[in-house]
Write a structure and sequence with these properties.
The complex is a heterodimer of chains A (213) and B (298). Chain A has four helices and 13 strands. By secondary structure, chain A is of the alpha+beta class. Chain A has two domains: 68 residues, Gyrase A, domain 2, CATH 3.30.1360.40; 126 residues, Cyclophilin-like (Cyclophilin). By secondary structure, chain B is mainly beta. In chain B, the strands form four sheets. Chain B has a seven-stranded mixed beta barrel with strand order 12-19-16-17-14-13-20. A six-stranded antiparallel β-sheet of chain B has the order 7-6-9-4-1-11, with no helix packed on it. A five-stranded antiparallel β-sheet of chain B has the order 2-3-10-5-8, covered by helices on one side. The chains are: A alpha+beta (213), B mainly beta (298).
Chain lengths: 213, 298
Amino acid sequence: MEVLPVGPEALLVDLDGLDAVAAVGAALRDALSRGELPGVVDVVPAARTVLVTAPGAREALPGVRSLLAGVDTTAVPERGAAGTVELDVHYDGEDLELVARDAGCDVDEVIARHTGATLTVAFGGFAPGFAYLAGLPESLQQPRLDTPRPRIPAGSVGVAGEFGGVYPRTSPGGWRLLGRLTADAPTLFDPDRDPPALLQPGTTVRFRDAGRA
Amino acid sequence: MSRALVVEEVGPQALVVDRGRPGWAHVGVPTAGALDGPAHALAQRLVGNDPDAAGLEVLLGGLALRVTAATTVALTGPPGGLRVRRSGAPERVAASHQPVHLDADDVLVVPAPTSGLRGYLGVGGGVAVDAVLGSRSADTLSGLGPAPLEVGTELPVGAPTTVPAIGTGAVGVSAVPDAVVVTLHLGPRADWVDDAAGRLRAGTWTVAPTGDRVGVRLEGPALERAPARVGEELRSEGLIGGAVQVPPDGRPVVFLADHPTTGGYPVVGVVDPAELAVFAQLRPGSSVRFAPVAPPVP
């Protein structure tokens, strides 16, 4: 673990893998919710880092550092502790053939591997409600498109690198698209709901094949 | 009639802003909020509002608002005045940075400033649109919060809670400079840039015309990748306002309130929070130099 300053009011915890990110993120968020880190505003886990911000409260950062010094980075929160969400997908994505070719299998097998995976929300970001899902089988861990698409419809289900994801709203993006959520899928982000994001760090996600629309 | 502002004319951009919605970055929600925080805070204070009240951020003027009830307003940001139209009376000019009392059906006009970019309008009682995740701010990146003002937009205004400030003629205002030197705290990824401290100290950059509420791009000497990091790809990591990110072309970007919550290029340094507000006001072509300092040890 390396702790890097991000200006005078934030820290970046640099870690060596998603498990350590999950452990550190959970430890910080738990301390925050117990009121033990007054002044800390955001705890932002990402692929190999956790950002901790304390705008206007730099005096909060020494407490963060001492908490970090005592964190067990192998204490990964139990899978499924944050609940399980099942999402129904029409597997008719534009990149299904491309993903099948790079995975060395046919389209049906891509669908079987994607629906067979038990994924976990590693972290959020990119857009409100977007969740980076860890746990893809290796054959589905594929690069982004060389040229991002200017407009990806809300509900599109894709893969990029080690992560899977679902676009919560229409946006540009470069992920390889496998399909789209069914019309009756739950809303991924609703600011009037508590919590607003359906997929929280630690949430288990499974995709189900809903057939053609 | 209920207390409201009715938009009659609008310039390049006018937005409802408050102090933003911090605390949601982990689900991809930007902080948003007034880019020039001190100017917004002063506007609220001048009209007697709570610091959490919402006002308007007006890019390059051009805004005309009719008030449906007697109201106190104050314009802050770059120096300049506002104009008040009242039927049957000649248009009058009122100074910025002090409370201005309006009657029902007066129209206030925010002209373009002669320096800087963004004016902040406080309205007694605050702009009372519905809050989203605890904030009334527009967010130009994610689309949360109220839409940008358009002709015909009607904004509800709350009831004033305290009396407006009086005797505030002492607020000092100076023109926004066209050249600044800002303190830059090196890190977290300064080691990804070749001789980061030396090049940042030596260079002079120019504010590009493409700046917006997400960030300001700087044109000038390219910051090159450190030889040891060439070809290496940084995984996306959390960002904060004031972070200076170095994309592959080496032209730094200073992130502002509507920045994405994560980014995949190295952040070479962070503008000191006390000096960030000037980036809300620097016009394209302004010159920026950095005074890099070693990262603070908390």
